[in-house]
Amino acid sequence: MDSEFDRDTAVTLREPGVYDAELSAGWTIIQAVNGGYLLALLGRALGEALPHPDPFTISAHYLTPSVPGPAVIRTETVRAGRTLSTGQASLFQYAEDGTEVERIRVLASYGDLDALPDDVRTTAKPPAIPPREHCLGPSDGPAPIPGSSAITERLDIKLDPTTLGWAVGAPSGKGEMRGWFGLADGREPDPLSLLLTVDALPPTSFELGLTGWTPTVELTTHIRCRPAPGPLRVSITTRNLAGGFLEEDAEVWDSADRLVAQSRQLARAPRG
Amino acid sequence: MDSEFDRDTAVTLREPGVYDAELSAGWTIIQAVNGGYLLALLGRALGEALPHPDPFTISAHYLTPSVPGPAVIRTETVRAGRTLSTGQASLFQYAEDGTEVERIRVLASYGDLDALPDDVRTTAKPPAIPPREHCLGPSDGPAPIPGSSAITERLDIKLDPTTLGWAVGAPSGKGEMRGWFGLADGREPDPLSLLLTVDALPPTSFELGLTGWTPTVELTTHIRCRPAPGPLRVSITTRNLAGGFLEEDAEVWDSADRLVAQSRQLARAPRG
User: Fold this and answer.
1) How far apart are CA A259 and CA A251, in angstroms?
2) Which residues form the Acyl-CoA thioesterase-like C-terminal domain (chains A, B) (predicted)?
3) Of B102, B122, B208, the CB nearest to A242
4) What stretch(es) of chain B map to CATH 2.40.160.210?
5) Long-range CB pairs of B245-250, under 8 A, 24+ apart, other chains included
6) Beta strands B12-15 and B18-23, pairing class
7) ipTM summary value
8) pLDDT tens digits, one per residue of A192-204
9) Is the pLDDT of residue A149 over 70?
């Protein structure tokens, strides 16, 4: 528990199925609490409430913007099966009069990644990302994430220069964002931190020439394998920007060349 | 209401937010009720319960196998916003002693597809599927769907011959399934029928040389555009079969070459 991520996603049992939490200001982008960090908090609470430890698939619908400060997570065991359990969880914060305001609701099916057979028959290939030393982070020049964002200090992200055109005023026009991902304090990846990883890179809309906010409506993540220690590679793709919405498909690969997470989100496109 | 699909997905208000339904035996594969048909039923109930008409993103977790017969759908309005509403719904059936058994639970965000702007900036291209007259359906030779399946009579599916190797004992080894989709009685597509379309083709696992059941754990569908009248093209891809699970990514294109739906499901891989 000496990592920032574990400390800031800790939950405290209040009563069966109900957990108190504190949303840290350390995981904000501009003023918004990062959606992946929130998902990891909900994922941790469900892992404690359900009979199985690992999120296999978790679908989150984002309702109202979260702010740093106290929160409560209410979970429900929907079904407890032999190899999979399904649960629901909501994260609430408090209005000035003390009433609970729901921020996010998730449905998830949990299992035990360590109990899965070793078979892998995949045609997916790791993304073509240059070696880490040829990729760029906030300390390598003009800050690639605009504004003051506490989260950048907690992440060790190095972006593929071919997806960084937006940072120098020359977006590629392609809906792609790729890079290396780690936690700044060296905490190794696990299924919970993968829930952060899938929503931690700058939005693909930057490379489409759009600036401004890209709020997530819904984000579903499949955790397919316990990640090996070491840096992760993340590739995000948007193929369809239409009608004011876009999808972001993320893949996360571990140091052993395993596809460890797949996610898709529906987000509102920025107006810019 | 003279289409089989509309008749068989009808819901009747029992009390506010609660709808009675009858699962038709006409949408079964072997003995199982098709998951896309069930999703369309839940989608219809939520469209009646929420202030917005169209599913923008709907995430379904499948809990227990549904059977033809009576069901009840219980909905909850989670949040009603200006442009989006979020709702939850569960479909229950009845045990012998009359208690309700939950079959599926969904979380969904609804909006109004007709209120979206016309902007389209997409790099997605329609799938390369031969003309419909060069594709093959159940009446064109050896039945491509094994076993007796009532649903095949209600669908007008013509599969790309390059994804039909499995039907003649020579699966391609690629996790791909493509074809033309329509309803057999000519009922035109709409957002609700798209929820059926994304889960209506044979599983990609057949082309991976695996026979047997591929039960859905979770299925999330984004409806991106109201489909134009006419036949739909569906392309399904599996890239990662590992640890006994696989994902199926589906795209649905309409006759106007618009990407109208994107879905992804996590399913258990067959053992065969």
Assistant:
1) 7
2) 145-267
3) B122
4) 4-113, 132-268
5) B245/A56, B245/A116, B245/A224, B245/B217, B245/B269, B246/B175, B246/B204, B246/B205, B246/B214, B247/A222, B247/A262, B248/B203, B248/B204, B250/B198, B250/B199, B250/B201
6) antiparallel
7) 0.95
8) 999 999 999 999 9
9) yes
Question: Would the CB atoms of A243 and B78 count as touching at under 8 Å?
Answer: no
Q: Looking at residues A229-243, what average pLDDT do you find?
A: 97
CATH topology of domain A4-113: Porin (2.40.160)
Strand-pair category, A259-268 with B176-183: unpaired
| CB contact (8 A) between residue A57 and residue B218 | yes
Q: Dump pLDDT digits (tens) for A95-120.
A: 999 999 999 999 999 999 999 998 88
Measured between CB atoms, does A112 come within 8 Å of chain B?
A: no
Q: Say whether residue B105 is in contact with chain A using an 8 A CB cutoff.
A: yes
Structure tokens at A131: 């070696």
Q: Are B178 and B136 in contact (CB under 8 A)?
A: no
Residue in B86, B240, B244 nearest the CB of A259: B240
Q: Check if A226 contacts B (Cβ < 8 Å).
A: no
Residue B1 scores a pLDDT above 80: no
